[in-house]
Amino acid sequence: MTGRELHVVSTGRQPLDELARIAGLIHPYVDAFHLRERAKTARELLEGIGMLLAAGVPANRIVVNDRADVAAAAGVRGAQLGHHSLDASDVKKWFPQLRIGRSVHSLHEAVAAEEEGADYVIFGHVYATASKPGSPARGPGELRLLASRVRIPVIAIGGVKPANVADTLEAGAAGVAVMSGILEAADPVSAAAAYYQCLHNGRENHGSSS
């Protein structure tokens, strides 16, 4: 993972065909598109990946949450592991071609993920967000501490908006992950472009093929 990355994470609230339609429009601005659909079966996830590919989303930008087996079967970029998932070391042993991320909520979890061999972590929630009512934000200070203690990239999630992207990067994040802020925006393309511009300070090249 290189540069400042924009990860877009599905919300689980949109039909897969609608999700694929939006992804096909925004993918030039997006480095990783996470299929995070906890209620879907492996077969449904595989069908969803097929929809994303048909919509023009490159395979090397698709990440499947939790289901490394599905990601490997589909030949896509990687898998995002949660607290309940297998260790990154085990997943890498069985599927060495995958780029593995781990979702973490503390410094301890981030250090453990790095030791397991995760390629990056997604840390949150950094700012207050409606998706976590009553749960206090961890804040940019905790993000700064965590990012300073691990060598792998830290992607910030939770309440990240274009207005606070600069502060998030200044705290040490290697990129940001966004869910409804892009996928449920009135104009997802404009929303994705706004995040991209904040991350890259107006660079002309869209997205990343890495």
UniProtKB/TrEMBL annotation:
The keyword DNA repair does not apply. Gene3D superfamilies: Aldolase class I. It comes from the Bacteria. It holds the Pfam family TMP-TENI. The keyword Nucleotide-binding does not apply. Residues 14-182 form the Thiamine phosphate synthase/TenI domain. Keywords: Thiamine biosynthesis. Pathway: Cofactor biosynthesis; thiamine diphosphate biosynthesis. PANTHER family: THIAMINE-PHOSPHATE PYROPHOSPHORYLASE (PTHR20857), THIAZOLE TAUTOMERASE (PTHR20857:SF22). NCBIfam families: PRK07695.1. This is Thiamine phosphate synthase. It comes from Paenibacillus cookii.
